[in-house]
Each structure stands twice: as C-alpha cells, then as structure tokens.
Design goal:
The structure is a single chain. The radius of gyration is 15 Å and the shape is globular. The chain is built from 4 helices and no strands. With 120 residues, the protein is an all-alpha fold. It is 82% helix and 0% strand. It has one domain (3-119). Helix 1 (3-24) packs antiparallel against helix 2 (34-51) and helix 2 runs antiparallel to helix 3.
Amino acid sequence: MDITRTSGLVAGLLVATGVVAFAITGANSVTALIPAFLGLVMGGLVMLAKAKPSTTKAAMHGVVIVALLGALGSIGRVVPAMVSGEIALPIAFAAQLVTTVLCLALVAAAIRHFRAQRRA
C-alpha cells in the first residue's frame, strides 16, 4: 500500500474516531472532534496529492507533520493518564489513544516510505 493510500485510510479513521467520540459524549464537547479535524486536514492534503501529482511529495510531508502534531498532542494526555491510572473521561481517553496510535503508525509508515524512495 502506498503512502498516499495509507494516509487516506488514517485520515478516514481519524474522522470516524472524532465523530463517534462526539456522538457518544452527547455532542457536548467540541474537543471530541479534534481527531476529525486532524483527519480532515490530512484528507485534504491527500486529495491535493491525488488531484495534482506534482504536489504529492509536499502534500505527504504535510500529512506527516499533521500526524506528528496529532501524536504529540494526544500522547501528552494519554501517557499521564496511563501512568496515574486516573482516567476521568473514558471516551475521551479512548479517542486520544486511538489518535495517538493512528498518528504514530502513519509517521512510522511515512518514514519507511521516504527512506525507500530515497534509496530508489
């Protein structure tokens, strides 16, 4: 699977995570949509890369930056909650954990892809 397709898949999963978390919380917390916002930005960059192939390299680097920011933002809340064992909002924690895992997986996949491209 190429990095553009992988990025599109992760973007869709992030949007779904955000929408589900928002719905489960009773649409009370806009912060539950943060994964969806990350996914929308990534999805926009993926669509740009597909629509205009000359932008693929820059767009995919943009996706990785968004994923890295998403991972750093989420991990900053996930790790302390896991260490302390105090999870105040299980839905929020689950959404943050899913966001962290998806974003870190995408960053790792992109690094492997970029290294392979450089060697080719």
